[in-house]
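Page 47, continued from p. 46.
Same chain as before, 303 aa.
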Amino acid sequence: MLEKLYRKPWVGLLGLAVGFLTQPLGHTAYKVLEAAFGEQVYWAAGVTGVVGLVIIARGLKQEELKATWMGMLGGWILWIGWFEYAFKFFSVLYDVPGFAVEPQVQGGYVAAPQANVLQSTVSIMLALLLVYGLFNLQTKCNFMRFFHRNLKLSPGMPTPDNRRSFARITAMEQLFVTWFCYQFWLYAIYFGTRGVGMQVVMTLYALWTAWAAYLVYKCTQQIRVAAALRYGIGAGIVLWGSAEMPAHFGAYREYWLYPLEFPVFNAILTALFVAGLVVIANRPARPSQLAPSSPAGRPATGG
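Result:
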């Protein structure tokens, strides 16, 4: 029964579920650190970020699948420790105000001070994304190669013998996709409550959700565990935007932000996330046993 999880379409949906769950559990981990360490939370966050870096470093020399899930886990922990809490630290240090919407806007979104600090990183992180992603003509990122093809930037397929560092690549994808989705919605709502109208925001939400649905479909087409997880990370984070945004406008309560009030809910999410990682990490060593061999004697699918 469990073997079916390593086959299409379940393997892609498994990767999607793990990528999706990093988002609410990231908020939960943020709140748990805050509750556990109080005024010393920034020191704890610093150590948390180091743990993330160590996991990524340990994954650099691993085989593809192990390097992928270690890169995802390390990047996720690094975001919580060194990104989320850095935004919080500097918002407190410089007494950054949160922005409020105009009185005539009904149900508008009020951003926290640390969200404003996050918004201020747009030029820095965008520059890094362009240099590291768009200008990297050897990348195998489908998103970047879409722009390469349409902007006539790509010289062709990446160099075949250019060995990829899956832990580093996966960690960078985790960080940049998370950052991009934050930026998109913060600025969409910012301008939506300041002139362009909430109708535009709702239209963007509909388009975003259509994109998320397409990515979910693409996840169901994945046949390898490592590739499914890497694709699922980005797809899951995008899908999270569709799931989370209604909560910001009062559609439902964000239980992941209140782990002490809703321990059972957050424990279930944590258990599902851990179970998904365990299933991925324990993919059978010989995937050829899970699928018929091709005429050349090689497995038709792998991980």
